[in-house]
Amino acid sequence: MERYQAPRWLPGGNLQTIWPALLSRRHAGPVPQFRRERWDTPDGDFIDVDFAQPAPTAADAPLLVLFHGLEGSSSSHYALAFADAARRRGLAFAVPHFRGCSGELNRAPRAYHSGDFEEIGWILQRLRGRTGPPLWVVGISLGGNALLRWAEEAGDSARGVAHAVAAVSSPIDLAAGGHAIGRGFNRLVYTRMFLRSMKPKALAKLAQHPGLFSRERLLAARTLHDFDNVFTAPLHGFRDADDYWARGSAKPHLHRIRIPSLVLNALNDPFVPASCLPRPRDTGPYVALWQPRHGGHVGFAQGRPPGHVLGLPEAVLRWMSSR
N or C terminus of the chain: which is more exposed, having fewer CB within 10 Å? Predict the structure, then answer.
């Protein structure tokens, strides 16, 4: 993916984002199957973690963990592609679901957010306790930013948990990404898509915890900034959306990372402007930047129509295995 070239039949960042998510092939073998575990959280809530089946027979098989993106799950196209790649490499594979993303409303008066490094840390510590070698960890979009925030906060202690981490198409400058998705075509297509899923969940949370936020303000939200102002920021201890975006962004802290970390962003990603991406001077010796010209947002399709998205996980896993 470092030198990825999009197929000629798939031009432009929007097409390279939408087509792979809807139509490209996600696995080379059978459809990945999962076994679900429900974990009680320290604050009385729960998360659901899906483990690929069958698990590898080798007791020392590394565990590949994938944190999904905004409103994603183990059925997202990228999760199925990584599950397939893990199977072919003999890796165990797990997808922890952020709260409310596994198909059932969580219990607590909170959801999830891009800077949720405490939740990432708790999940990784629990997964680390059930495997021999350190974890291989990938975060997609929102999940990637939260994963990098964990690596930044963990510092040297991250080495005892993870072998390496990778963030794919992550909005590591949340303000730049949030404003980009709130304009023009992005607002008409992507913002509407996300709000169509997020607003009903928020209203269900309000019914569960009356008075948690203003129903009228939520219904009036037309951008992710509006939504984060009403819902995400106050429920997770931030003053407002701008405070959340500033404190949750991974980019300002990349130099603090002390574990091999890959940060992969296409320069034509509709959600993450190229102008906000980090340069080598923004990172430290542990961070590798891959910034191909094409790929869209978690797209990176290859082959003839309808194409496939198997190259992305293979490239990321090759990088991880070489660390």
Answer: C
